[in-house]
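Throughout our pipeline, every protein is held as a single compact record rather than as scattered files. The record that follows is passed on verbatim for readers who wish to inspect the format.
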Amino acid sequence: MASASAGSGNGLLARMLDAALQGDQAAYWQLLRQWLQTLPWGWLIASTLICGLVGAWLGRSHGRLWAGLCWGLLLGPLGWPFAARPRRGRKPPPLPL
């Protein structure tokens, strides 16, 4: 089993984590700031916008543009089936002959 102080960064991280778990709010906020700096923000924002646009595109075909946009932004690809649902109580358009 590897010890927590195997590397210089691991020992500091272990001490900060212990302090945060014991109620030291400064250590907690420092850990949170460091974690947030490691996230790929550009990728997360771009994928969220793309999911919203796909949801809006799916919703537009059923007369629910804004609902599709909201479902796509909130749930990503999981919201697309909700965006593609037609409105309640609305009859489907007639088939072309």
Confidence is low (pLDDT under 50) at residues 1-7. The helical segments are 8-21, 25-37, 41-60, 65-75, 80-83. Residues 41-83 form one domain.
